[in-house]
């Protein structure tokens, strides 16, 4: 498949999302919309609160989503970083392309299925933040590389054994080698990656010994640094940049017909440290592709990432805005101190923090949710504690902020995008 054809096919598939019928698969959508397509429903510009939507219902703010996309585009440009946001956060091809249109180099992903989704929708540059040793997945990658000269694929290697398995699976399958970066672990007890610089060298030597792989740089994830604080994170990042400098001095990138050397890091909590340390990187024999991979920014949140985002530490750079709101309805009010709403673990992220009740919508309009809090979640219910005088009634809608975007998107297949006045202007399809 030629590059232009692959991209055009992906764009056509993206446009075709509007032709998907609205039906029982998509929770929260208006029952009377069944028989319409997603595009037709979007064109009706229904109001989220009066247009027949049912609870529970997750919505994305159109204005805040756009704000976050622009902010990170500007941040990456300001700091000389190339941006490949982590697509595992949303698994939404529409958002992948919004990110690319806002300057992203490509999309980072975690597992082969996610890469297949991105490719199905025409994404031309993929960074796989994992070592890939599955023969079937490697055969598919090789076929993609052979069919599309413009497709760029980079993945981790973190062991000599991994290199051997990749080589065995790829031999004879592709006219191009698979580009790999050696993953440096963030320390003892960290998740994946090579623990020492000497071992990194052994992995690089193993790559050099095969024709199926090409070493293009180094990478890692600073979010796994034990007892992370600014000093420890920067110390580890300097290990990463020193490793790429040592590899370059040793000629490990020579003769590989490279145009650039990749150095990559960056989750959503320490990208300020990544920007600072990558700015210190001395000149290499080739241009450095300083690749940042933060993903949670796209929706941000009202919990964990609100607390740890670098914009808290460097407010002069701007501020991300939480774009999610989960709406649920009060379905039981057994006492003055307790209520139950119809959203639970099937609907809301709960692995880091419980949802936070922010507003109440009732017969008198919308008001702050003072004295109302979520204490726990069942599969389909939120347990609500209410202080005296809240006036909460059965039938009221509760608007809740969520923590952890990665475990919010995955519970919803089709998410309304809503403007500030309540008008639903689009629907985001996810593929988990």
From TrEMBL:
SMART domains: D-ser_dehydrat. InterPro entries: Ala_racemase_N, D-amino_acid_metab_enzyme, D-ser_dehydrat-like_dom, D-ser_dehydrat-like_sf, PLP-binding_barrel. Residues 323-419 form the D-serine dehydratase-like domain. Keywords: Lyase. Gene3D superfamilies: Alanine racemase, D-serine dehydratase-like domain. PANTHER family: D-SERINE DEAMINASE, ZGC:162816-RELATED. Belongs to the DSD1 family. This is Amino acid deaminase. It comes from Streptomyces tauricus.
């Amino acid at each position: 498949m030629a590059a232009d054809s692959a991209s055009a096919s992906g764009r056509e598939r993206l446009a075709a999302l509007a032709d998907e019928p609205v039906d029982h698969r998509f929770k929260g959508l208006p029952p009377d919309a069944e028989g319409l397509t997603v595009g037709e429903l979007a064109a009706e510009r229904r109001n989220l609160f009066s247009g027949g939507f049912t609870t529970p219902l997750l919505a994305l703010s159109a204005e805040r989503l756009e704000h976050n996309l622009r902010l990170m585009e500007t941040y990456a440009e300001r700091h000389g970083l190339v941006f490949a946001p982590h697509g595992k956060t949303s698994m939404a091809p529409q958002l992948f392309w919004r990110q690319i249109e806002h300057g992203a180099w490509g999309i980072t992903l975690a597992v082969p299925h996610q890469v297949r989704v991105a490719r199905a929708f025409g994404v031309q540059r993929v960074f796989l933040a994992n070592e890939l040793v599955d023969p079937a997945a490697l055969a598919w990658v090789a076929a993609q590389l052979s069919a599309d000269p413009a497709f760029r694929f980079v993945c981790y290697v973190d062991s000599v054994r991994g290199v051997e398995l990749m080589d065995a699976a790829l031999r004879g399958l592709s006219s191009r080698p698979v580009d790999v970066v050696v993953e440096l672990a963030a320390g003892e007890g960290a998740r994946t990656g090579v623990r020492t610089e000497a071992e990194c060298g052994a992995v690089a030597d193993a790559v050099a010994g095969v024709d199926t792989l090409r070493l293009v740089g180094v990478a890692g994830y600073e979010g796994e640094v034990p007892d992370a604080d600014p000093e420890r994170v920067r110390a580890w990042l300097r290990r990463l940049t020193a490793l790429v400098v040592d590899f370059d001095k040793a000629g490990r990138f020579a003769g590989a017909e490279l145009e650039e050397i990749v150095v990559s890091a960056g989750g959503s909590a320490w990208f300020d440290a990544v920007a600072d340390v990558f700015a210190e990187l001395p000149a290499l024999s080739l241009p450095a592709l300083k690749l940042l991979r933060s993903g949670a920014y796209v929706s941000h949140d009202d919990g964990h990432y609100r607390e740890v985002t670098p914009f808290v530490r460097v407010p002069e750079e701007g501020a991300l805005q939480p774009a999610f709101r989960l709406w649920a309805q009060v379905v039981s009010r057994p006492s003055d101190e307790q209520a139950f709403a119809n959203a639970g673990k099937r609907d809301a992220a709960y692995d880091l923090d419980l949802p936070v009740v922010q507003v109440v919508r009732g017969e008198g309009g919308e008001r702050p949710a003072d004295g109302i809090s979520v204490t726990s979640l069942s599969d389909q219910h939120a347990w609500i504690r209410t202080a005296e005088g809240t006036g909460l009634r059965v039938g009221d809608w509760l608007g809740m902020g969520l923590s952890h975007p990665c475990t919010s998107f995955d519970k919803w297949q089709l998410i309304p995008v809503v403007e500030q006045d309540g008008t639903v202007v689009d629907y985001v399809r996810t593929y988990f």
